[in-house]
Write a structure and sequence with these properties.
Blueprint: E1 9-11, H1 22-26, H2 30-35, H3 42-52, E2 56-61, E3 70-74, E4 85-90, E5 97-99, H4 109-118, E6 128-133, H5 135-143
Helix pairs in contact: 3-5
């Protein structure tokens, strides 16, 4: 029997972001709606990112997963083994930092990436980069 527990990631398509209740509509359970809900400026960040870069797929991380706020995958390469994952952790007022996902709040990023690999989006041993900082700085980094 399949588990009814929410997964670690939820894909957020660009078309869904036109509505404030995007997560409510995309999540199958009330637990998922709570775990994937947007906070603060996260919805505006998601809208701006996908409006500027249509080649990106955006995945919301469960806010109890310690896998960042979002996982971003550039799907321009048609082969999953050529894709990488950028884990985004938005921090109000913080300057931009680009690093490996070793911070405590990112410790379960590998498990979230495995979900993406299981879905065929990337391969399990893909490159992973962490981008941490305020939403404006992170957005500038990702769209350039």
């Amino acid at each position: 029997m399949a588990s009814l527990a929410p997964t670690l990631v939820l894909r957020i398509p660009r078309a869904a972001l036109g509505r404030r209740d995007a997560v409510d509509r995309l999540s199958a359970t009330w637990q998922g709606r709570k775990l994937f809900a947007f906070k603060c400026d996260e919805l505006e960040f998601a809208r701006a990112l996908l409006a500027r870069r249509t080649n990106l797929w955006l995945f919301r991380s469960s806010q109890r997963a310690f896998a960042g706020d979002f996982l971003v995958v550039d799907v321009s390469p048609t082969r999953p083994e050529r894709r990488r994952v950028v884990v985004v952790e938005l921090k109000r007022g913080d300057p931009l930092r680009v690093a490996l996902p070793t911070a405590v709040q990112l410790r379960n990023t590998p498990a979230a990436v495995r979900e993406l690999a299981d879905a065929g989006v990337v391969v399990a041993d893909c490159a992973i980069e962490a981008v941490i900082g305020n939403s404006d700085a992170v957005l500038r980094y990702l769209v350039n």
